[in-house]
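Figure 3 (text version): C-alpha coordinates given as input.
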Protein backbone atom coordinates (compact mmCIF):
# COMPACT_ATOMS: atom_id res chain seq x y z
CA UNK A 1 0.00 0.00 0.00
CA UNK A 2 1.30 3.46 -0.85
CA UNK A 3 0.86 6.55 1.27
CA UNK A 4 -1.56 7.86 -1.36
CA UNK A 5 -3.71 4.72 -1.10
CA UNK A 6 -3.60 4.86 2.70
CA UNK A 7 -4.55 8.52 2.78
CA UNK A 8 -7.52 7.97 0.47
CA UNK A 9 -8.77 5.04 2.56
CA UNK A 10 -8.20 6.89 5.84
CA UNK A 11 -10.41 9.70 4.62
CA UNK A 12 -13.33 7.29 4.27
CA UNK A 13 -13.37 6.94 8.08
CA UNK A 14 -13.32 10.66 8.99
CA UNK A 15 -16.09 12.14 11.10
CA UNK A 16 -15.94 15.88 10.47
CA UNK A 17 -17.69 18.55 12.49
CA UNK A 18 -17.90 20.78 9.44
CA UNK A 19 -16.01 23.46 11.38
CA UNK A 20 -12.54 23.77 9.83
CA UNK A 21 -10.92 25.15 13.00
CA UNK A 22 -12.38 22.45 15.23
CA UNK A 23 -11.46 19.71 12.77
CA UNK A 24 -7.85 20.92 12.44
CA UNK A 25 -7.56 21.17 16.22
CA UNK A 26 -9.01 17.64 16.52
CA UNK A 27 -6.42 16.26 14.08
CA UNK A 28 -3.48 17.99 15.80
CA UNK A 29 -4.62 16.96 19.27
CA UNK A 30 -5.14 13.44 17.94
CA UNK A 31 -1.56 13.30 16.65
CA UNK A 32 -0.28 14.45 20.02
CA UNK A 33 -2.55 12.14 22.00
CA UNK A 34 -1.68 9.06 20.01
CA UNK A 35 2.03 9.94 20.04
CA UNK A 36 1.71 10.21 23.80
CA UNK A 37 0.24 6.72 23.91
CA UNK A 38 3.28 5.42 22.03
CA UNK A 39 5.55 7.15 24.54
CA UNK A 40 3.52 5.85 27.49
CA UNK A 41 3.71 2.26 26.28
CA UNK A 42 7.45 2.56 25.77
CA UNK A 43 7.87 4.16 29.20
CA UNK A 44 6.15 1.17 30.80
CA UNK A 45 8.34 -1.24 28.83
CA UNK A 46 11.41 0.55 30.18
CA UNK A 47 10.01 0.71 33.71
CA UNK A 48 8.44 -2.73 33.97
CA UNK A 49 10.43 -4.86 31.52
CA UNK A 50 13.89 -3.31 31.77
CA UNK A 51 13.50 -2.02 28.20
CA UNK A 52 13.00 -5.45 26.66
CA UNK A 53 10.44 -5.11 23.87
CA UNK A 54 8.47 -8.31 23.28
CA UNK A 55 6.66 -9.26 20.09
CA UNK A 56 3.38 -8.43 21.83
CA UNK A 57 4.78 -5.01 22.76
CA UNK A 58 5.80 -4.43 19.15
CA UNK A 59 2.27 -5.25 18.01
CA UNK A 60 0.75 -2.85 20.54
CA UNK A 61 3.19 -0.10 19.59
CA UNK A 62 2.42 -0.69 15.91
CA UNK A 63 -1.31 -0.22 16.63
CA UNK A 64 -0.61 3.13 18.25
CA UNK A 65 1.67 4.15 15.39
CA UNK A 66 -1.19 3.32 13.04
CA UNK A 67 -3.39 5.75 14.97
CA UNK A 68 -0.70 8.43 14.65
CA UNK A 69 -0.52 7.75 10.91
CA UNK A 70 -4.30 8.09 10.54
CA UNK A 71 -4.31 11.50 12.21
CA UNK A 72 -1.33 12.60 10.11
CA UNK A 73 -3.07 11.51 6.91
CA UNK A 74 -6.26 13.37 7.75
CA UNK A 75 -4.44 16.50 8.93
CA UNK A 76 -2.30 16.51 5.78
CA UNK A 77 -5.42 16.23 3.65
CA UNK A 78 -7.00 19.20 5.39
CA UNK A 79 -3.83 21.15 4.61
CA UNK A 80 -4.06 20.05 0.98
CA UNK A 81 -0.83 18.05 1.13
CA UNK A 82 -0.34 14.40 0.25
CA UNK A 83 1.54 12.02 2.52
CA UNK A 84 3.61 11.04 -0.52
CA UNK A 85 4.76 14.65 -0.91
CA UNK A 86 5.42 15.01 2.82
CA UNK A 87 7.52 11.83 2.84
CA UNK A 88 9.51 12.85 -0.25
CA UNK A 89 10.16 16.37 1.05
CA UNK A 90 11.22 15.05 4.45
CA UNK A 91 13.69 12.56 2.97
CA UNK A 92 15.14 15.25 0.70
CA UNK A 93 15.56 17.59 3.68
CA UNK A 94 17.27 14.92 5.78
CA UNK A 95 19.54 13.85 2.91
CA UNK A 96 20.57 17.47 2.40
CA UNK A 97 21.34 17.83 6.10
CA UNK A 98 23.37 14.62 6.08
CA UNK A 99 25.27 15.67 2.96
CA UNK A 100 26.08 19.03 4.58
CA UNK A 101 26.99 17.44 7.92
CA UNK A 102 24.21 19.14 9.87
CA UNK A 103 21.94 16.22 10.82
CA UNK A 104 22.73 16.91 14.45
CA UNK A 105 22.09 20.25 16.04
CA UNK A 106 18.96 22.30 16.23
CA UNK A 107 16.87 24.60 14.11
CA UNK A 108 14.49 23.90 11.27
CA UNK A 109 16.51 25.66 8.58
CA UNK A 110 19.97 24.19 8.97
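Below: residues designed for each position.
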Amino acid sequence: MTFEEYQKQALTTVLSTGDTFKDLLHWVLGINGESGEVAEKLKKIIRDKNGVVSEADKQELAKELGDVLWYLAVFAQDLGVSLDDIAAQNLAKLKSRKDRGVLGGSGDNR
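The chain has a mean pLDDT of 95.
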